[in-house]
Amino acid sequence: MKAAVIMGSKSDFEVLKKTINTLKYFGVDVTARVISAHRTPDEAHEFAKDAESSGYEVIIAAAGKAAHLAGVLAGNTALPVIGLPIKSSTMDGLDSLLSTVQMPEGIPVATVAINGAENAALLAVQILAVKYDVLKLKFKEYKAGLADKVRKADAELKAEVEGL
Amino acid sequence: MKAAVIMGSKSDFEVLKKTINTLKYFGVDVTARVISAHRTPDEAHEFAKDAESSGYEVIIAAAGKAAHLAGVLAGNTALPVIGLPIKSSTMDGLDSLLSTVQMPEGIPVATVAINGAENAALLAVQILAVKYDVLKLKFKEYKAGLADKVRKADAELKAEVEGL
Amino acid sequence: MKAAVIMGSKSDFEVLKKTINTLKYFGVDVTARVISAHRTPDEAHEFAKDAESSGYEVIIAAAGKAAHLAGVLAGNTALPVIGLPIKSSTMDGLDSLLSTVQMPEGIPVATVAINGAENAALLAVQILAVKYDVLKLKFKEYKAGLADKVRKADAELKAEVEGL
Amino acid sequence: MKAAVIMGSKSDFEVLKKTINTLKYFGVDVTARVISAHRTPDEAHEFAKDAESSGYEVIIAAAGKAAHLAGVLAGNTALPVIGLPIKSSTMDGLDSLLSTVQMPEGIPVATVAINGAENAALLAVQILAVKYDVLKLKFKEYKAGLADKVRKADAELKAEVEGL
Amino acid sequence: MKAAVIMGSKSDFEVLKKTINTLKYFGVDVTARVISAHRTPDEAHEFAKDAESSGYEVIIAAAGKAAHLAGVLAGNTALPVIGLPIKSSTMDGLDSLLSTVQMPEGIPVATVAINGAENAALLAVQILAVKYDVLKLKFKEYKAGLADKVRKADAELKAEVEGL
Amino acid sequence: MKAAVIMGSKSDFEVLKKTINTLKYFGVDVTARVISAHRTPDEAHEFAKDAESSGYEVIIAAAGKAAHLAGVLAGNTALPVIGLPIKSSTMDGLDSLLSTVQMPEGIPVATVAINGAENAALLAVQILAVKYDVLKLKFKEYKAGLADKVRKADAELKAEVEGL
Amino acid sequence: MKAAVIMGSKSDFEVLKKTINTLKYFGVDVTARVISAHRTPDEAHEFAKDAESSGYEVIIAAAGKAAHLAGVLAGNTALPVIGLPIKSSTMDGLDSLLSTVQMPEGIPVATVAINGAENAALLAVQILAVKYDVLKLKFKEYKAGLADKVRKADAELKAEVEGL
Amino acid sequence: MKAAVIMGSKSDFEVLKKTINTLKYFGVDVTARVISAHRTPDEAHEFAKDAESSGYEVIIAAAGKAAHLAGVLAGNTALPVIGLPIKSSTMDGLDSLLSTVQMPEGIPVATVAINGAENAALLAVQILAVKYDVLKLKFKEYKAGLADKVRKADAELKAEVEGL
Lengths: 164, 164, 164, 164, 164, 164, 164, 164
Known about the structure:
8 copies of one chain form a homooctamer.
Chain A: E1 2-7, H1 13-25, E2 29-34, H2 41-51, E3 58-64, H3 69-75, E4 81-86, H4 94-101, E5 110-111, H5 117-129, H6 133-162
Parallel strand pairs in A: 1-2, 1-3, 3-4, 4-5
Helix pairs in contact in A: 1-5, 2-3, 5-6
């Protein structure tokens, strides 16, 4: 099971570390690339066209501002493409979100929250888990772990509230 | 291969017909349900908890306004959940979009465009196609068909422009 | 008289301290909990279903981003639920506000301002005061105190303006 | 048990009929008034100041555009004030929503969805039910009725989907 | 010639210093007050009702969030009221702007830019200048001064650009 | 007493009829002009520069989209300029509002609500009333009339509510 | 002198007729095409890469929703690309505008107003006029014509205002 | 080949350095000016009217808030005007963007991204390149350089990802 994580600019890497690490945690093979829909459009086309035959089963694309990357990749592959809108220096990520999610009929992009780096990875895992039972199991454990963290925080809160 | 299409209100059915018909076109078994995250929360929990053992492999959830349905289902299942924000009578769908896509860490919702009924189905097909090769093939044909329609429109345009 | 303060994440506690302290100031019994609508949905359902029989008379629910917590609790209890939208790292709280306030017909959430921690508590006090006369009195004193603070600030301003 | 429904303009009455009828359905005494925070400010002050001694236990205030009515009433009474933002001819109700909900510290307004006429009434009922057990019961029946409607719609959907 | 500068909270004073100083520069008598539309509504009513007979000829009202102050004052006086929306900690001032400017028919508020402290004063001067010729002259000098500053900046720029 | 009503496009006249008629009702001399800040910039400059010597005492400028008209006139005259943002076919008037109200330091525009045609006129009347006592009186009568209309609507409502 | 007008969907043609007719009026050779950045990405790449050698000197690209077309073309050609955001059924064109204008460093798109069909053509003419003097002249005549239309409207207004 | 870079305020110079340096890199003659549409409107008119005869072939205009500068210049010249919206202290640049891009029919402004300083210069280069072949060549080299930077970042990423 193999996923590609494509970012429009290397500056997005800070946000995407969590995506890559989460995929690795689940044992998903990850290739991370910097490919710009606008500055290296040939690479973008080529990568997307070859993605399936290269063994990728899902693609995560992260970009900011007029975030065309996920849509451009989705137009050139049949694989599911997850769009991760990156918050840039203006517009608080609204531009990235709308550019990623508002895709026209025929070419969907599975969009997650602005800067939702971990969720992009988890969605990839859920998609791969449709095929790979081992991931299904591991995802459930992960989710149970999240619930435990909430329960632990709930327990800790009690003491802190009494101390108010 | 089996998908569930859940809508928060029966009034969303007008939009969702396209979703259901597209899934059927691809030979995906579809169950459509009206389940409200707020008015029938037990059904929502129960449906999501049983979804995997009932044989569903992907869930599409459509809702408007404070659209919690997709997130609530995602919280109760390990299956991938596709969120379809429905435009309601105010706010032009921005409320539905933000309520669906801005999910907190741990529980992603794969969000498509506001009223993107066909894309919700196509994304489900792409996700199922990770496992089912027959869908992969059919999706590529479908996409080729979309390209042909654009090319046909391009050809027709020529005549119309000359007639201006 | 007893209120519950539920937060979707322990990180919301910084904002909610004011809510809890204000309730305590009015002599309202407060239970504070971390319960996530998405990560611990069973706890959320259970808490809400048992809230009335546990003696709670009003619930305050605080959450950010796709803030479903207040709505999910409201769907599972007949008690009035006050929604407190928390500003998160993107969208300046607009996502939290719309996710909390734009509830569909049948399940209202009494929404206060983004990060309006004190007002969430005061609204709970006003609601409880419908039943408990002692709160009615205390709330009027509190309000008179607010007015006095404004009058004091008004007096201080005079000197400062002369010093300009 | 007695509620006041105040509207900033008689043109809001079309939306508010549902509010008034819902309150009546629950057996709540309703007084409906047209009082403008800006055009009849004295009436607004006077009404709010006398509301409690007149026997009102909760106030619903509906207004559009720069919707100050709920806030102005809340400033002059200790009773809980429910704000109902009305969608006007521009800005899709966003102006009304923000003007109603973003109240400063000290004076909360319990805000419901834009044009959420029924929910304004239901929230009033929930608030009154803190005191009046009869309403608690009736509200639960009402909610059960809503759930039944969803279940009926769910059943009807099955037939319609088969007919696609 | 006499103007009142009313702020909803003393924390607005930092922004309003420029307003007060600009009015003083033009020789306009200024009274600055902290009056809250919600926390001291009686003072707000009273001040506005007496403003004309107290000799004020124009009122500047500054407030943030659900900024009702300008509208409330305008509802209680025939004097022109200038609204100055203050940017608060969320929503980037959009809530203050819409709450101030979107006034219903009959009660206008002359709104200036978010945090436009100097412009609020200059607009007051322009309004007073309709009556007082001395202000008309001084305002033209001030405006000429602004133009000179731009021209000076333009001259300085030349050197800096050459140094690039 | 004399006011100018300038519109950026003749299509704005439908909205501005109310402005003109309200000014006439108050006995203010009105000149209405179509002058475009972009298409007839010389006329705009010239009109603004001559406005004071032509006897105008206040200017109302109405425009839509990138609504520069009010700002451009304000840059060329010392008279107070009232900006009336016109709602156009996209963006619901938000573009017009921000283009009109967000003026830089030094050149204020007294902005009223989107399509607030009557309020633009009333603000002009209030400004002129600083100088002309006859207007002060008439404006108070007008305002009293508005209050009476609200009171009449309030009385009518009673019957209609009983008929529900 | 030769321009290309590319639309993402044939449904945009209604808006683009004005663009094409305006270009023809100025004697610019126009080729109009339907090419989708997502559904026919190869055609989009190919067209853009060949555009210069095919004799085009400027490209107009119109698209709605997540409007990537202009950006994608700009990424594949050195020619200036004019982006025309089309208003679609949701979000009032804000999604199209932000997707078109917020381009990352290195690949600008010359964006005009939402649905600004005529302005897209006029901007193309202005760009071509840098090279072709004949267009410079014709553009000035056109602009003079616009001014005359405003002046004529101004004259007509006089009569209509008198008739109020 | 000669371009003008006009800024509404000297404080915009920090952003515009990149614009000026990029133009210089391409060998374009640059004149930079501080001219305010509102504070020095005569200079703005005059500059724009003389721009063509002064040898300018393209104008870049940068301004924030109610950013009228680009539109005002465009109204007074036949040259193509590039609008660069500057982000100011409130509204995250949305006001500047809408004020710049939403121009009425007849007077386009070629708008680039908020604070898109480099892109404003590059668009000017692309426009001049329609006429000057030397720029066409240099622009292609520049674009190739951008692609190389992306490829270099892509190569560096590989090592960093392995180090995670």
